[in-house]
Design brief:
Layout lengths: L4 H44 L7 H17 L4 H11 L1 H8 L10 H15 L1 H31 L2 H9 L18
Helix pairs in contact: 1-6, 1-7, 2-4, 3-4, 3-5, 4-5, 5-6
Length: 182
């Protein structure tokens, strides 16, 4: 029995199942924490760009100006708009509060401008959100590591073989017949 690797693999499989249960619970808790914290930080960050009701006319004027500049085809305008979104919260709010076409930009460009504005006006919340998202990624890495650990720890085929070939350790020893085992 000392040379029976199927028994060792069966024990490793049992140990791995127990470890997996604990680690999966931790992964679930970590992922939940990361998602909850990322959502809270995102909400705080976007609150900074929430439009003020009393400035609706200003936001409309800003978007109209942006559309006009985009229509002129000025090659410096995209860079200037980026600068404005990072330095003027009302410009950032105007761009953030409406679909991109109302400002003369595509949706992808609009999202890029909003992201830059968030980094400028809510840097702590953006950093917290990124950190929380990284926590979630670590949970994914833990899952991948757990899978690799299982593969390295035991052979499923040998562990399964052990469960089908139980050895009664209390059974009397029987001497092998002549010629067996050679």
């Amino acid at each position: 029995m000392a040379n029976d690797t199927s028994k060792t693999n069966e024990a490793a499989k049992t140990l791995f199942k127990n470890v997996t249960k604990e680690v999966e619970q931790s992964i679930k808790a970590i992922r939940s924490y990361g998602n909850r914290e990322a959502e809270a930080a995102k909400n705080r960050a976007f609150d900074v760009l929430s439009p003020e009701v009393s400035k609706g006319a200003i936001y409309s004027e800003v978007r109209q100006f942006c559309r006009e500049q985009a229509a002129k085809g000025n090659p410096d305008w995209p860079m200037r708009l980026s600068e404005l979104c990072r330095s003027d919260v009302d410009t950032a709010r105007a761009i953030s509060a409406a679909p991109g076409f109302l400002s003369g930009v595509g949706d992808e460009r609009r999202m890029h401008l909003v992201t830059n504005a968030l980094e400028a006006f809510a840097p702590d919340d953006v950093a917290h959100m990124n950190h929380a998202l990284e926590v979630g990624k670590q949970a994914e890495r833990m899952e991948a590591g757990l899978d690799k650990l299982g593969q390295a720890m035991f052979s499923s085929a040998l562990a399964d073989r052990a469960s089908y070939s139980r050895v009664d350790v209390d059974a009397p020893l029987i001497a092998p017949e002549a010629g067996e085992g050679q």
